[in-house]
Please model this.
Amino acid sequence: MFKKKIMKSLGLVVTLLLAVLLSACGNGGSKSDSSTELGGKEIEIPYKGDNSAARSLVIAEVLKDAGYEVITTPMPASGPMYATTSENANTFNASGIFPSTDKSYLNQYSNLEVYDKKNLIDKAKVSLAVPKYMDDVDSIDDLKDNKDLGKSVDWNITGTDDRNGVMKETNEALQDDDFNDWNLNKSSDEEMLSELQKKYKKQEPIIFTGAKPHWIFEEMDLKMLKDPDKVYGSGDEHINLVFNKNFKDEHPAAYKIATRIADDWNEEDENKLSKRIYVDKEDPQKVAEEYVDGHESKKDKWLEGIQQ
Model:
């Protein structure tokens, strides 16, 4: 009788111990399922000197708050930016213009991956552009066999770095016989903008390679030219994150954070940030930090479930 009671008590203890162990294992599994580890902590984000600077620096600040060591690297053109993204598994950029403008870089580098479940910017535009005071120019077709227009700008289209996607598309368009007299001048983003500002101030004619969104369109009355021949694609361009294909496995939490920001990004906020950086000449790092600090609820949502 006494022996039976002892055995019964031991059985109860064993049962309780098993229940505790199973509960602990269950809780551990639940925690793992609902949280994401940082992975490697070193990350690089290359970006161009346009609106992508604002979004890239904001993403970098959020990743730093998550525990990452982030380097943000200004790039002179799309070509070097995509090369950097391709060469380094710790790298992604927030500057991809698709489906047309940057398509050639996806063809060139097979180890790139575009996040397109949701776009950073839904409606982007790439074309030639002019100041609005050029009343008689509204379409790329207006350049064809137009001697008066050609002479007014010395038959020159003011371009940017020839490693940008828009330059590749423009060069291809100028192979058409209707554009035989036209030249595309390559320079840099800074030189192109300087030339535009100089011409605009004097109300002189200028034709340049343009892309929107870009802070310059917020500061000057400019217009993108209609593109009836679809030189620059269908017109339905958008801007996306572009990752090295190994990035997600190396930095699972960073991938989750960056894509969450893409899902939630606000173009109006981006325009305001770009104005502060490029027009008001504020420190870009400080601008990004102040934005993140001033949007705690957004940051909390972006970092939810991240193991720091």
In short: The chain has two domains: 42-120+240-302, 125-224. The first helix runs from residue 2 to 34.
